[in-house]
Amino acid sequence: MKLHELAPNPGATKERKRVGRGPGSGLGKTAGRGHKGQKSRSGDRRLPSWFEGGQTPLHKRIPKRGFRSPNRIEYSVVNVKTLDRYFSEGEEVTPEKLLEKGLVKKGMPVKILGDGELTKRLVVKAHAFSQSAKEKIEKAGGTCEVIA
């Protein structure tokens, strides 16, 4: 088979619809848009889902509440049960290793949470630990190190 012999599978491509090219084409005059009205005009703009015909939309009528703190630190979280599953006895757990294994997002600080059980002794380095996670890691004989 040569490059010039390649062709799309039968039925995989459709002929382009050339509208408004005379009555013989079957798509002349109104070009499949019907008669008059906003939808038949050029520049027919499809309206956003929240548009309510000019009435003040719901999201503008409802009062504003709260705010998003610019100082909030958003962590990539990992539970101790995940550490137990992905790491072996005595291994060092760092944000780099967690990223390598696809457990955290790049460029986000890591927080270890205490859901599940930990059966292995691990050296865990992270930006933050929940109280329960710290207890479970130390109970299993491991250590917790907070990194900046």
UniProtKB/TrEMBL annotation:
Q: Where is the composition biased (Gly residues)?
A: 21-31
Q: Which InterPro entries match?
A: Ribosomal_uL15 (IPR030878), Ribosomal_uL15/eL18 (IPR021131), Ribosomal_uL15/eL18_sf (IPR036227), Ribosomal_uL15_bac-type (IPR005749), Ribosomal_uL15_CS (IPR001196)
Gene3D superfamilies, A to Z: 3.100.10.10
| GO biological process annotation, one example | translation
> Its Gene Ontology molecular function terms?
rRNA binding; structural constituent of ribosome
Q: Where is this region: Disordered?
A: 1-65
Which residues belong to any copy of the Large ribosomal subunit protein uL15/eL18 domain? 77-145
- Looking at the UniProt entry, the stretches that span the membrane are none
Q: GO cellular component annotations, sorted alphabetically? A: cytosolic large ribosomal subunit
User: Which keywords annotate this record?
Assistant: Ribonucleoprotein, Ribosomal protein, RNA-binding, rRNA-binding
Q: Which domain of life is it from?
A: Bacteria
**Assembly and interactions?**
Part of the 50S ribosomal subunit.
Q: Of which family is this protein a member?
A: Belongs to the universal ribosomal protein uL15 family.
Which PANTHER family did the record assign?
50S RIBOSOMAL PROTEIN L15, LARGE RIBOSOMAL SUBUNIT PROTEIN UL15M
Q: What does this protein do?
A: Binds to the 23S rRNA.
This protein is called Large ribosomal subunit protein uL15
- Look up and give the organism this protein is from: Thermocrinis ruber
Task: Name the gene for this chain.
Answer: rplO
